[in-house]
Design goal:
With about 425 residues, the chain is mainly beta. Helices cover about 0% and strands about 50% of the residues. The chain is built from no helices and 33 strands. A five-stranded antiparallel sheet has the order 1-13-12-11-10, with no helix packed on it. Strands 18, 19, 20, 21 and 22 form a five-stranded antiparallel sheet that branches. Strands 5-4-7-8 form a four-stranded antiparallel sheet, with no helix packed on it. Pfam families: BNR_2.
């Protein structure tokens, strides 16, 4: 099948650019304390390449020979900006940027804030999602955003050693705010085409390597100036024979309405007509009630717990028997992480786990536990960078995978040279062992 008829590209390059001029193409960057890990794609198999590294503010330049499409370079200056490019026998790839320095966790991918390689989508990293692929590997996705940018590209990365190392898999285009999930041994991506864009569902039958074109569940506006679909890579759960997740419609200027989208677990997930979006409701006159985490409460109710205000989450209830009905407002609850995106997970043995940023900063990523969804106790911290400048540091928008007492977390990260706490230059990974 030709690439024009696929959702996946390895890599995606805008159609008006010459892909052959991009090779060797650097597809993954991971800065080290005094070096960098690189991975690239080459259209000349077996070719020995030269890796050029140049300090941006100095004449220092070095080159390294590589016979495979990956290399680890050390011995560079710490906390220093560098240019890097790959030279093959017949052509040279584009220059990329990185900054040396340590970062908490394991780097899935990195993008220097002044690197314009993905500028057709954005110049910051966003929207991590993580899943256990049917083949047993970990698969993580992230997208590229920027102010006044199209925001329509997602990249996938795989780990075959439980998160200790990561490799590039493919790009999805158009794809934004995507959530990876597995259903009946098949891998799916529920996403938007761009901010406020079309709602899409796609499937891969080879563990994420290739993806057929997605189905369009609903059309959005695809305009930052009009209302459209909004979501984050929020949890998808199975209850009462259906798959459920949260969804919003609106804009930051005009506010958001809330809904849930669901489908019968036995239906074809890639047929748009099988999905049901509930009636829309505007539960509050405040603009921000978004990025809801769906969870069953101890009373057997399906709740949408939404990011709302400082230390206050908004609670809506879905109708398990009538998925097309509007959500019912139950009120607010005290919640220590409601000022930023969080996830609530329901343990099979009982009890709840939530991961997010405890108020007021985003440079501490915490884990809380509860038995009743009302009283929350701090279990521990995945990252505590409270001694750093909170205006330029952030560990936020966690995507979590719970397996027994182990939790795997992909995190949107601003650190070591980020423009600010929100505009991220890393996507990082952590394995957290629960104490309960």
């Amino acid at each position: 099948m030709s690439m024009e008829r696929m959702w996946s590209y390895r890599p995606y390059i805008p159609v008006d650019e010459d892909l052959t001029q991009k090779y060797p193409y650097i597809c993954r960057l991971s800065p080290l304390r005094d070096g960098v890990q690189l991975e690239w794609i080459n259209n000349q198999k077996g070719e020995i390449c030269l890796v050029h590294v140049k300090e941006r503010q100095d004449r220092y330049k070095a080159q390294f020979a590589a016979s495979s499409c990956a290399i680890t370079i050390t011995g560079l200056k710490e906390r220093c900006d560098y240019e890097v490019w790959i030279e093959g026998k017949h052509q040279t790839g584009e220059k990329r940027l990185f900054r040396t320095g340590e970062v908490p966790g394991t780097v899935i991918h990195y993008l220097h804030p002044e690197d314009r390689s993905y500028y057709f989508s954005g110049n910051y990293l966003c929207s991590p999602s993580i899943v256990r692929s049917p083949d047993g590997s970990l698969l993580a996705s992230l997208d590229y955003f920027g102010r006044d940018r199209p925001q329509n590209l997602t990249s996938l990365f795989r780990s075959t050693d439980d998160g200790k190392s990561w490799k590039y898999v493919t790009d999805l285009f158009p794809c934004f705010w995507g959530k990876l999930f597995v259903h009946r041994e098949k891998l799916y991506m529920l996403a938007l085409s761009t901010e406020y864009g079309d709602l899409l569902i796609g499937c891969s039958e080879d563990n994420g390597e290739t993806w057929r074109p997605p189905a369009v569940i609903a059309r959005g506006s695809c305009s930052p100036y009009e209302k459209g679909f909004h979501r984050a890579p929020c949890q998808i759960i199975t209850e009462s024979g259906r798959l459920w997740t949260s969804l919003e419609y609106g804009s930051w200027k005009q506010g958001f309405s809330n809904a849930v989208i669901s489908i019968d677990k036995d239906a074809d997930l890639c047929k748009a007509e099988n999905w049901i979006i509930s009636e829309w409701v505007r539960p509050t006159n405040k603009n921000c009630a978004i990025e809801g985490s769906l969870v069953m409460d101890p009373k057997g109710r399906l709740l949408n717990v939404l990011r709302y205000q400082d230390n206050r989450a908004l609670i809506l209830k879905a109708d398990l028997q009538h998925p097309d009905k509007a959500l019912q407002l139950l009120g607010e609850m005290s919640f220590p992480m409601a000022h930023s995106k969080f996830e609530i997970l329901h343990q099979t043995k009982g009890g709840y786990i939530s991961v997010g940023n405890r108020y007021p900063m985003r440079n501490v990523l915490s884990v809380y536990t509860s038995m009743d969804l009302k009283t929350w106790k701090l279990d521990g911290e995945i990252v505590n960078a409270s001694d750093t400048d909170s205006s330029i540091t952030g560990f936020q928008y966690p995507s979590c995978l719970l397996e027994g007492s182990s939790m795997y977390v992909a995190v949107r990260t601003a650190f070591n040279g980020a423009h600010n706490y929100h505009d991220n230059n890393y996507c990082t990974f952590y394995k957290y062992n629960l104490t309960i």
